[in-house]
Amino acid sequence: MPPKAKEEKKAVVRFGRVRSNLKMGLVGLPNVGKSSLFNLLCNASAAASNFAFCTIDPNESRCVVPDQRFDYLCDLHKPASKIPAYLHVTDIAGLIKGASEGAGLGNAFLSHIAAVDGIFHLVRGFENDEIMHVDDSVDPVRDLETITSELCMKDLDTIDRAIENEKKEHKRTKMTKEMEAYMALLEKIKAMLEANQPVRTGTWTAAEVESVNERLKELITTKPMIYLVNLSMEQFVKKRSRCLPLVQKWVDEHGGGTIIPFSVEFEQKRWDLREDPAALETFMADAEGAKSALPRMVKIGYKQLHLIYFFTAGEQEVRCWTIQEGNLAPQAAGAIHTDFERGFIKAEVVSYEDYKAYNNGKASMVDVKAAGKYRIEGKSYVVQDGDIIHFQFNVTADKKKK
């Protein structure tokens, strides 16, 4: 038999690190509601006060990714242990104009942004004389411009240094096609940043993305961005805000993206009433159909990081295992234990939808197998979000050399 062909390495087609413990960072000007939102998302207790730079060191926590599929499996199996998926969130101190040149708390906080993998860009859309604003007036579009400009200028500094280093290298060695391509990439990125356009909004080849991931890891504007607009409770409930169309126009002109209107005031009142069901029911009835935006925020943040999860389910435990979108079965097995990946034999798989449709309400695979929905997958199987998997593996201890 001819030797098996080696698998070709798949091209990198998106910016960022490839791992399962990625983080979203809350970014914005001081006093727009970042720490209050962080507390609500993560049931945390980060300081949230009415003065600039209340947050200095970044606060880190995690919040549960809501999922009816996980709830169904738990209700069905009634396991002793229930472990959902989590989104890791970092509350980063407020940036101000000039941060890229050291203003405010400056470059230290820009480095905190560089340490996360995606950004919740938070702006304030309501006036309130009792809550100070760093620019003395509320203008969400101006705030979007300020933060975007600071991030672009920080990246521009990185690119200028990279270009200077390449020029020095070119003086010492003969120019190669690879060096020419990299210099062209740097100049292309520089032109975008000088136009105040984040790198992620450009059109890039797989080779260019791979080059950025390998050689320009510190770039900030490659990170996925979700725009959060903090409204007053009245604006949120009435679904009326003059700033939202302006924010939408700005976002469309800067590469597009998801915009999530929400209200810290509304979410805080819901949270405060959580232990009084009758009062909470009355509050929600008066809210004219408004619902919490937090679950959507978490789900979209998780998705923007290209994370998915598969389930293991039984009477002992129902658990979500976070992996990167596109992971193969052995890599997914490695999320449970490195031995599972090293000794991978096969994966016994059923999609959540098929499991629910064919189990006849029983915590069993018998009827699912009878329906032909229980599959055996090998090393080339790309795990899908919501798969229920049982791995078969075998790890033989290495024999000691005599």
UniProtKB/TrEMBL annotation:
Domain of life (superkingdom): Eukaryota
What name appears for this protein in its UniProt entry?
Answer: Obg-like ATPase 1
Q: Does the keyword Glycoprotein apply?
A: no
Please give the function described in this protein's UniProt entry: Hydrolyzes ATP, and can also hydrolyze GTP with lower efficiency. Has lower affinity for GTP.
Residues where ATP binds: 31-36, 231
Give the chief site where it resides.
Answer: cytoplasm
| Keyword annotations from UniProtKB, A to Z | ATP-binding, Cytoplasm, Hydrolase, Nucleotide-binding
**TGS domain: which residues?**
306-393
The record's family statement is:
Belongs to the TRAFAC class OBG-HflX-like GTPase superfamily. OBG GTPase family. YchF/OLA1 subfamily.
The organism encoding this protein is Nannochloropsis gaditana
In this protein, which residues make up the domain named OBG-type G? Answer: 22-282
A GO molecular function for this record?
A: ATP binding
Record localization: Cytoplasm
Looking up Pfam families in the UniProt record yields: MMR_HSR1, YchF-GTPase_C
The record's annotation in InterPro entries points to: ATPase_YchF/OLA1, Beta-grasp_dom_sf, G_OBG, GTP-bd, P-loop_NTPase, TGS, TGS-like, TGS-like_dom_sf
Q: Provide the assembly information.
A: Monomer.
Gene Ontology CC: cytoplasm
